[in-house]
Amino acid sequence: MAVHVPVSNQPPGLCAKPHHQQRGSAASTAAAVAAVAAPPSTFAPQTTRLSSSSAMSLHVRHAPPAAPVVVAPERAAAKKQEEATTTLAGMWREIQGAGDWAGLVEPLHPLLRAEIVRYGDLVAATYKAFDLDAASKRYLNCKYGRARMLEAVGMAGAGYAVTRYIYAAPDVVAFPGGGGRPCPSRWIGYVAVASDDTARRLGRRDIVVSFRGTVTGSEWVANMMSSLEPARFDPADPRPDVKVESGFLSVYTSDDATCRFTSGSCRNQLLSEVTRLIGKHKHEELSITLAGHSMGSSLALLLGYDLAELGLNRDGSGNAVPITVYSFAGPRVGNMGFKNRCDELGVKVLRVVNVNDPITKLPGIFFNENARVLGGRLELPWSCACYTHVGVELALDFFKARDPACVHDLEAYLGLLKCPKVAKVKKDGEDLIAKAKKFVLEQSFDTWRFQMAAIQFGELVQAMGM
């Protein structure tokens, strides 16, 4: 008779019958105990028979040792490569434009789409935090302190700490007939740095500068100053052939000694803070990301060029820190000399534009990159005075007949990019699907958007002396 001994945690390979068959009589149990107590010499290597006076036997099947799991080097390398191309930390350099976004724009890569939206939201925060209450002591400045600004606008989980607010004052009068009064400084954006958790997720410590677009009358006047002027950011090498729009240059470089919030020009504030943060984190993997909407995208590009031209984007080992500009509805900023110099310095620019947005076609509506060469060969005499876009374009296509202003609205841009089908949008904007348009047109935006539109219209009327 065979006796089956119940085992609570049987080892792999032990042959045992279901629990309800593992019961025996008291005599059987006693026999089993006696069998287990037999001398060790009675055990055989694989199958062991234990004998007793009742001729009972216990059969134990020993499983062979489990083979070690060996991962082929090829499989391990393939897995590592897959992780590098599916996680942001693994391919952040490509997302930041290291390869000029080749293969990522058409079709739009999901990681790139998510990053564009994320930086767009950081720009949208500048509008939401902007004080539009004329009775407020912070009118046309930020409503909140640095420590709680992102939280106050609903971005508590953004993963960035705001380190400095930036103010700008173009060197123009507020509007014709304004008595020649200088324009006071207004809050134009902020500098922030990624937290430790965000840095781990991104694969590097990201320094962000976000700029809002045009609001005040003086800014509208600056936007209309379409003459080109040498930037001359590096005193040791002025490069007179590198020219930018004089109005944007005025906003970037002009100083307002009367500003109660800060001192120094927008440029000095930015260079000081960005270099301070680079020095603080110089032994980490770093990136500099500059994002702006409309006029703000022009300031972002000027800052990117400025940092690279002066060589301030260097880490503790002397390596260049990547500079990336995310431009939303941005106009042209400079001439071909400016574009070529940005390319030489490695400043990467991704321009997100709506093909129906007139601002993206200014300045240089006639004299631009398309009017420099005749017949593809002959460079025309005025080519050096032609405005030229910088970087790679991601073209969207949306229009709302009952709200024409939406073609330039940042929230409309982001609403379309958040559409799940946006990956099918082609670079030339021709294959935009109807569902994406419907998604944008049906959006209801926050009240700050309509407040902003109203004040922009009012300031434009003042700027034009209407």
Protein architecture, described:
This protein is α/β, with parallel strands linked by helices and 466 residues long. 32% of the residues lie in helices and 14% in strands. It contains 14 helices and 13 strands. It has helices at residues 26-36, 73-86, 92-95, 110-128, 149-152, 196-202, 217-223, 246-253, 266-280, 295-310, 336-345, 410-417, 434-441, 447-463; strands spanning 160-168, 186-194, 205-211, 228-230, 243-245, 286-293, 323-328, 334-335, 348-354, 373-374, 378-379, 387-388, 392-396. The chain has a seven-stranded mixed β-sheet with strand order 1-2-3-6-7-9-13, sandwiched between helices. Strands 4-5 form a two-stranded antiparallel sheet. Strand 10 (373-374) and strand 11 (378-379) form a beta hairpin. Helix 12 packs across helix 13. The longest helix is centred in the first third of the chain and has 19 residues, at 110-128. The radius of gyration is 33 Å and the shape is globular. The protein starts with 25 loop residues before the first helix and ends with a helix. 40% of the residues are buried. Residues 1-26, 28-61, 175-179, 423-441 and 454-466 have low confidence and may be disordered.
Summarize the structure.
By secondary structure, the chain is of the alpha/beta class.
Give me the secondary-structure category: alpha/beta
Overall mean pLDDT: 77
Shape: globular
Sheet-strand content, in percent, reads 5-15%
Keywords:
14 helices; alpha/beta; disordered C terminus; seven-stranded mixed sheet; 13 strands
